[in-house]
Amino acid sequence: MKNTNVQIIKPEVSRRDALRLLGMGGLALGGLSALSPNTLGQSATTPAETTGHYRVKIGDFELFVIYEGTITFPIQAYGINVPVARIGQLLTDNFLAAGATVSQPINCLVIKTPQGNVLVDAGTGGKAGVADGGRLIGNLAAIGIKPSDINYVIMTHLHPDHIGGLFEGGAATFSNQLIFKYAEHVITKREWDTIDNPSPGAQARPAAIQPFFTTVLQSAKAALTNKIRFVQAGDQIIPGIEIISTPGHTAGHISVRISSGNQELIHLVDSVTHHVLGFAQDLRLLFDEDAPTAAATRAKILDRVATDRSLVMGYHFPWPGLAHIRKIATGYEWVPTAWDWAAQTK
Question: Most exposed residue of 27, 66, 106, 191, measured as fewest CB within 10 angstroms of its CB?
Fold first, then answer.
């Protein structure tokens, strides 16, 4: 794989100007509708239904990556401070299509432990026109897990593609009724507080998608107030499942360390959002609410997992999202794990 990190270049457009393009004129993204919820449902090649779950063992824990769907964003959203050509070149150099949009999978995670079943994020739920989302429940059923079997839900942050699947409702609606009604839901207080006190970065989202975010957050507030447990860095949900603070993408964003015996997996979640573009140091992602903090967090967590040679998972990495991270001269690169067919047949 070619190196995806280059020296930092001077931004050619400010965040304010970029958001004006995204949220008002939309010229760089092919119009305002490019960031509407309907566009998020544009379909990409998806795993076959028979591969909607992928099994991996970490010590005594049995983990399943669960395919929830695909989400699509305009290409400019992956680098609002650089020309589209820069993003396209990175994709082309890594044998990826460089079109008007970028599609990525949504990889939820279930951890089966002696203390109970833990779900890390719940995907979109197929809400608000995300047509290729909403497969979590069906793919859980394929491994014999019902919503009532989930004992803990870790909400890594409050973006719609991570919490939309927590709530009952059709493709265009959210309700205040929880799907995993018997589970303890956990989140950081810093993240929860952003519902009523959003960060400046959150307030600067393009106007076209702001109502979608607001609807999801209000559903979360109505359904979960007084029903959640606040956690912080170092806390263990149960023995072997530890919270890692990784702010920047959102104020209270967290990653998760899963360890058993002498094995571990670090779920990066959205601290690294793309297996190529997420490693390019000069790109500024639209949905990173605090870009400088996100960049510092990314450097820290990548150094940790590369040094420790940890198995990692990315919420939007290519299916099934598992990889190692290798340090190179210009930064880091993604090294996907080999498909373990034997593990899928046990």
Answer: 27
User: How many helices (DSSP H) and strands (DSSP E) are in the chain?
Assistant: 9, 14
pLDDT of residue 130: 46
120, 143, 169 from 220: Cα distances, Å: 16, 27, 13
The third-level CATH classification (topology) of the domain covering 15-344 is Metallo-beta-lactamase; Chain A (3.60.15)
Task: Return the ∠ at Cα 34 (arms to 11 and 70), rounded to 5°.
Answer: 100
What's the rounded Cα separation, in Å, for the pair 123 and 225?
A: 20
Helix (H) or strand (E) holding 290: none
What is the reported pTM? 0.86
- At a CB cut-off of 8 Å and minimum separation 6, what does 329 contact? 3
SS3 call for 155 = coil
Secondary structure string (H, E, C) spanning 216-279:
HHHHHHHHHCCCEEEECCCCEEECCEEEEECCCCCCCCEEEEEEECCEEEEEEECCCCCCCHHH
Question: Which token pair is 280?
Answer: 């390019």
Q: What is the sign of the dihedral through the CA atoms of 97, 98, 100 and 102?
A: positive
CA atoms of 326 and 321, how far apart (whole Å) = 16
Q: Which residue has the tokens 């979640």?
A: 269
Condensed to tens digits (0 to 9), the pLDDT of residues 10-40 reads 334 444 444 444 443 333 333 333 343 333 3
Query: Which of these ranges, 41-45, 65-69, 154-158, has the smallest mean pLDDT?
Result: 41-45
CA distance 47 to 30: 28
Contact 231, 237 (CB under 8 A): yes
Could you tell me where the DSSP H helices lie in 153-270?
160-163, 189-193, 200-203, 210-224
